[in-house]
Amino acid sequence: MTTRLPDEVPEAATLEFSAPHNWCDRRCERCLLSPECAVFLLSERARRQEIAAGRDPDSVESIWSRVEQQLSATVQMLEVECRDRGIDPSTIEGRERHASCEELEDQASEYLIALLDLVETLRRNPRALASMNLSDVDLDEVSGYGYLIAGKFGRVASYLTEEGILDGEVAAIDGAPNLLLIRRVLNELDELLPVQRLPRRPAAYLAAREDVRRRLEPLLAAVTGACDAHLEQLVRLGRAPSPFCVATCGS
Fold it and tell me: Domain-by-domain residue ranges, the chain?
């Protein structure tokens, strides 16, 4: 299922983004689209089955079981999508990986490592943590955002050409919204993690953050405009996933 604007909305009406679960922040508990999201519904059904069987749904074994089920369901959904589009899955060739892909993934990994190092430093320093008005729960959220950003950069990297730009229909409908998600989450992290309050600048983290922002700029420049307008329309209609639309504030 792609996210298309209804016919009565004239602006950017021909644009499509991939299904919302492809470009969300995985915070299903606040997402307006959870009640109709196949990924969330499958996960919740699996959790109920684990509980009914007397198993802990949060155990490692249960989590991996759900991951396996979700992967199987995803493959089935892709097969249906290919059939609807008249595509033979056996004829689909893997995208060629260029140096630009590895460079972007490496930058994202370095950012994640620097962020996690900062989180661990803050956990060991209650005074610094207090100066930022943060708790251990907040740091867990920061870490989760870091993994999300790195993962989404990896997804975008898979669409890059040899020149390091997005190219092709799939890149437009899936790479573009993921870039908008990365921008949004990076901005939210800046608010959640006010490093300017620390007595000593976290140089490694700041350098890594600047690197990923610098790399993000030209990629965003290629998709903003029409894609931003499309996203704004989806937000107004309540058809964008968290963090763009959330149950607590509406957007």
Answer: 15-91, 99-236
